[in-house]
Amino acid sequence: LDLMSSTFGRDADYDGLDETNEPVNETVNKIDEEEDSGGTFSIESLPPPQKEPMFGTKFWSNPISEALLKEWESATSPCLPSDSSLLSLPPLNPFVPTKFDLKPCPLDVTHHPLLHCSLKILDTGKKATVTKFNSSKKQILLLYEDRDEKWHEVDLVLASAIDITPDFEGTLDKNSIKFKIVAVPKEEGSTLDCSDNGDFSIDIGLSFPPIPPPLPESRLPQLVVDTQALRLWHLQDRTFKRPIAELRLKVICSHANKTPLHKACADLFVTLCQDAVTEISYLASVCELGSSISSTDQGFSLRVHGFDHKLLDLASEVLKVFFSFHNQQDPNKLPDTIKPGRFDACLEVLMRRYANAGMQASSLCTDVRLRCIRPTIWSSHSKADAFKFIDESSFMETITSILSEVSIEAFYHGNVDHSDALTAKELVLNALTASGSCDIPKENYPLQHVLKAPLVTDDHIVVTPTKDSKEANTAVEVYFQIGKDDLSHRVLIDLLSEIMYEPLFDELRTKEQFGYHVSCGARWTFGVIGISFKVVTSCKSADEVSERLDRFLHEFRDKLATMEEEKFMENLVGLVKNKLQMYNSLEEECNSLWSEINEGRYDWEAYRNEADHLRSITKERVMTAFDDWLSPKCEQGNAKERRRLVVHVIGTSEGPASDGRPIIESDKLGKEIDQRVKAFHEAAGHATWGKIL
Q: Higher-confidence residue: 125 or 494?
């Protein structure tokens, strides 16, 4: 049946033919089978056509031959196309996982059913939490409410956690101490409140929450490999119990950030690698596997995540592309992994990214502040300027020098056991060996110096216009530098930010409408801590914002001095609870642990340690810290010396927000901002905090 007039002509071509008035469903035109089989359509040899009643379309109908029906029926049987056919099935996806079983965790001799339970000593009424278990001595360590710790011998052996229920009673130290369990942990490693049904206590948010005991060594990342070429950390997941894993790699290159050209080539190298693995990444993404590559101030960062069964297969493909740029037969030629024409395309993408960097006032303000205190950060303008005469040959020469000396620090986390970690070790070491790169001694790692802000009474203000001539907003960031990272200083900065955030937002944003973005928060910059205040406004001038922030700090000093103890504890307890929040996913936990490796602190339980240290913080210590770091005036009322940096990025609003905007030609703006950043470096005498990490 064919109702398409375009196949056999137009409907008007058949206007002279006689038509049959018989019903459509009952009329079958007898077309000569021989004529039909020849594929020739002749109007003269056909009977009168039928007419479709709705639209008046003329048509002929004829029974389908048995031979054609058999041919169609045989085509319904599944079969592969012939070798000569251009039609084929897609290739088998190599990243389809087939194993989803959870790897058994190694036997933990430090585990006991009483671990993390809250006990009440019946003889004394004291409450305690079981923090550790010594399997060789059959002893548990109790942490009492007064922070006193004491080992006790367990009298009976409990087979499993099934035996542990609230109100369970037992004895310690050969029946000399009787205890009752008042709370059991809902999650492994958590600690519950010590109160029981007999205690008429109500948590109103003012009591200090219980601190979980330190995790045993077996529950923390373990160093599997520790060589000059590779340091590999491993941790098997015991919490989320899903067949997924994360592999993080920090590729350290001694010359990755040597000059703006080296950094720009590293950025282009990342773009080329991402482009080269596009097809592989698509196949992996269909199977819930993903990968990413980025450049850092020390080299590069690689991440592979997803189902653990095929994760190392994807990592192998990514590393092949990554190291294909080194040890080339022709050092001036791009590797075969890069398709023809992709160099120019990726270069264009990168140059557009440089041109669009810092278009918003807020992002440019943060970028200028970081460049002022981090002299090793190169601006987008300087990197784009270094690429004016770049070509494939000069790029390969630079990237070869970057990859000539490489060391790797890695973290393998998730549903992976020790044998999987050893497999990952072989994978990374084989990739390093095949590349021909030399490893780097740790003392030759690229240093990440942080500039020491001058200790002065007058502010050093860096003023720049916005890059976008249509950006109406003005951004102001006031940064106070505290000093080298220290646990006590870190928690004091966090607590000050917690206490100041709400009144700062309430006064400047809600009541006075200074801007739509008002915030303050702690800053951690390669081992140097500080606190930053930021306001983005379209109705106030930058000078007004700076003066108002100084006035807020002066007024807040009196509010802090008169703050009731209940209000202070409310902020303190709220901060502790935030730090003790459990991770919601494996990715979130891996991000936290990887940041410790990436930053070189290796404090696996930093949040827990900070929460525990907050127990000793008093309002008097907070006031002393505020006076030392933030207060604009000393006790005598004179201006106080502070390590303070102020950045103004002024927009083009028609109101006061554009007051003081420097007039700089757009093509000279990037160079002018770089000069103003260098002026701050000179004012600081290029003094740094020294080697911290």
A: 494
- pLDDT band at 38; cut points 50, 70, 90: very low
Q: Given this model, what pLDDT does residue 425 score?
A: 96
For residue range 132-157, list pLDDT tens digits in order: 888 778 888 888 877 788 889 888 76
Task: Please give the single-letter amino acid code of residue 10.
Answer: R
For 260-321, give the DSSP string: HHHHHHHHHHHHHHHHHTHHHHHHHHHTTEEEEEEE-SSEEEEEEEEETTTHHHHHHHHHHH
Burial 367-387 (b: 16+ CB within 10 A, else e): bbbbbbbbbbbbbbbbbbbbb
> Which contiguous run of DSSP H or E holds residue 502?
helix 487-504
Mean confidence (pLDDT) of the chain: 86
Residues composing the chain:
693
Q: Hunting for tokens 């690698």 — which residue is that?
A: 273
Tokens of 319: 């590393």
Give just the sign of the alpha carbon dihedral 84, 86, 88, 91: positive
8 Å CB contact between 666 and 469: yes
Pairing of strands 244-253, 299-307: antiparallel
Average pLDDT over residues 552-573: 92
C-alpha dihedral (622, 628, 629, 632), degrees to nearest 10: 110
